[in-house]
Amino acid sequence: MAFRFFILIISLTLSACSAVPSPANIPKKTTLNTYYDFQLYDPSNQQEIDNIKQLAQQLADSQVVLFGEFHTHPAIHLAQLRLFAALYQQNHQLSLSMEQFDRSQQAVLNQYLDEQIGEEWLVKQTKAWDNYRSDYRPLVEFAKQQQLEIIAANAPRKHVRCLGRQGLDYLQQLPSNQRQQLAETFTIEDPAYRQRLFGNAHHGDEQQTQNHFIAMLAWDDTMAESIAKHALNSGQQIMHTVGNFHIEQRQGTYSRVKQRLHGQKVSSVVALSEREFTSLSAAEKQQKGDYLIIVRALPLRYKNEQHRRAEFAQINQQAQISCQ
């Protein structure tokens, strides 16, 4: 589902997932022999972090922890669960925020947390990601067991797609209850983030490219607003699970949360493959994020360009919806 979810935005020529380079051997205390192994790294002092408990201690004073992921990577999802549990051991005033649910699904998610509905109903009603049961169920169940709140932080997919087609004008036609499912304000001027998203390429004319950028911002600003509102209202620490692209280089969701939290500390845990890690200088590693999680690269999705194009075409066709 993670792949399909992001390819739905490729119907707007966007992708919120970072490509994962191939693995390479690097000297470290942790050996990445399997897809459940990971290494934690502090780029500020260029030292490996021994374990999740140590990372949790270093994050104790962060109001918000943004945990980036390569969707479907077993080691990253395992680390997310372990970090969330370790943060809870330190501070029971904790909430989980998730890109994987959107604001329109908050009521259904709350019903599940309150034991009013079962998991199958939750999955069907929210059209949960295909990898929900394998990758996100453990986090949700831990939060449920400890009676912690979960924030359905994202923007609804339909609105994201329609913003990609029509730009901000689309917001004017939404009734108030649907308008509230998106961030109140969007930070449009962000040339560095736009450059990282598109490079020097253009997707159609300039207005189409700008609309596609606004669609990406619908994710970032809506997630950031959801997180910040909960943090300011509850005073709780929040851990947010999110695609890596949204927080790399402290851009996207990261920068939008910082804008809204008025100086409270925000920290990121950014995912890297072994090869990418070894290719970066110390300064580049610091630029990537506040903390790094290094994992084995996932297998290539496609080796044949025709196969990739066929899959994209099928998903694009499925994504055709009315924006009226």
From TrEMBL:
Record keyword Chaperone present: no
Keyword Signal: yes
Ranges of residues in domain Haem-binding uptake Tiki superfamily ChaN: 55-257
Span of the signal peptide: 1-16
Keywords, in A-Z order: Signal
InterPro entries listed in its UniProt record: Cofac_haem-bd_dom, Fe3_uptake_reg_CjrA_prd
Pfam (any one): Cofac_haem_bdg
PROSITE patterns the record matches: PROKAR_LIPOPROTEIN
Protein name: Haem-binding uptake Tiki superfamily ChaN domain-containing protein
Organism: Agarivorans gilvus
